[in-house]
Amino acid sequence: MKTPLCTGPLLLDGFSRRQFLSRFGLGFGSIALGQLMNPARSFAAGPAGLDHGILGQPHFPAKAKRVIYLFMAGGPSQLETFDYKPLLNEKNGEQLPASVRMGQRLTGMSGNQASLPLAGSVYKFAQHGKGGAYISELLPHTAKVADDLCVVRSMFTEAINHDPAITFLQTGSQISGRPSIGAWVHYGLGSDNENLPSFVVLITPGKVDQPLYSRLWGSGFLPSPHQGVQFRSGKDPVLYLSNPAGVSPESRRAMLDRLRELHETSAEINADSEINTRVAQYEMAYRMQTSVPEVMDISKEPQSVLDLYGPDVQKPGTFARNCLLARRMAEKGVKFIQLYHQGWDQHGGLPNGIKQQCRETDQASAALVADLKQRGLLDDTLVVWGGEFGRTNYSQGKLTKTDYGRDHHPRCFSIWMAGGGVKPGTVYGQTCEYGYNVVENGVHVHDFHATMLHLLGVDHERLTYKYQGRRFRLTDVHGEVVKGILA
Fold first, then answer.
1. Which fold has domain 52-243+296-485?
2. What pLDDT sits at residue 50?
3. Residue 469 φ/ψ, nearest 5 degrees
4. Which of 205, 222, 215, 171 is nearest to 315 (CA)?
């Protein structure tokens, strides 16, 4: 027999869902109808008529109202971006000392190499901002906003391959099937805009070395309305949103009204919450026919703003365009916005490969921070930049003066965070002089998630969902808030 799901405080011990709703006179059909006809009076809505999530309100005052997560899929090298290691240049070509590696596992791609020659970065570093953060010459625009960033150089994970590592960063588990971060945030805190999804995903098309799966922004075992909605470039940002040829808005409205009536009847008979989910999704889609084209249209943006993001902003689907769209969605109240940029998996040809990746992302990432700040949105918007793991300090494959590659390295990597209650102009954590191990203030993936939820006003130990007899949470049974990066 299938174990019933617990969806929150509406269920009482000793009552089935059907008994509870019947006893209190709130059949599923009337709930759906009440939400559609008068959202402000629905039990799931707050004073403004919006879904305020299962929590109703944050556990404590939130520093961040929304998150924009810039995910660099493939694992960008920290040694070419934010973790300056001059010793690697001094010892370039020498073997990785056993005392540094300490028997740690390697991937099959470099574990069978006859040698593991240390590889210093071919790119120069300089200190920037009041905090003196070392930032690579590959990121000149990011360097200009250094005083707004908190660079975390001591991230670490257990996952050594892409799929489990990306899944871990996105869901808190290396095994697929868990809800994504954005789904947890929507489940807990609801939405700030009834005409747009609370969780939106934007993917930059182009080089694909590691595939992305929709489960990375899925709802897992949470109710399906909490999954992310992918917005695409092109005529139809959301698939199947537009009316088919010959169908007028009036006809669609009439069809939805009749369909709602049929679903209400079915819900009363079957007591299936997914029926009302479909009703709500149909209605959201109807409202999105107006709201989505509006938020995707950048034609009224001032030229000064377009120049800030760079020339690529004129091309739909580029990372620059997606960063600008993320800012526009943040203004509209979208609570969790996830941007994916692929192509950071440089096992070989790293110097040229990472140069191109930084060229595509540097200006737009910095522009997003600056644009949010000039609009007064950075204070309550948490911006995150980073990948799923780091890269090795030794070369995978042949090492030359101008070329080398780096293998996967879970023991340490760098990310940066900005706004939303994070301490600006700081560097947190430290790796050893070889850039191989964390030696100070390590930040585990669960710690990162706990901190993100904390900034949103959520106690990560109290946002749970009962599934198959166990209460799950984003941070599983681990995770500590990283207080050293809080403003």
1. Alkaline Phosphatase, subunit A (3.40.720)
2. 67
3. 85, 5
4. 205
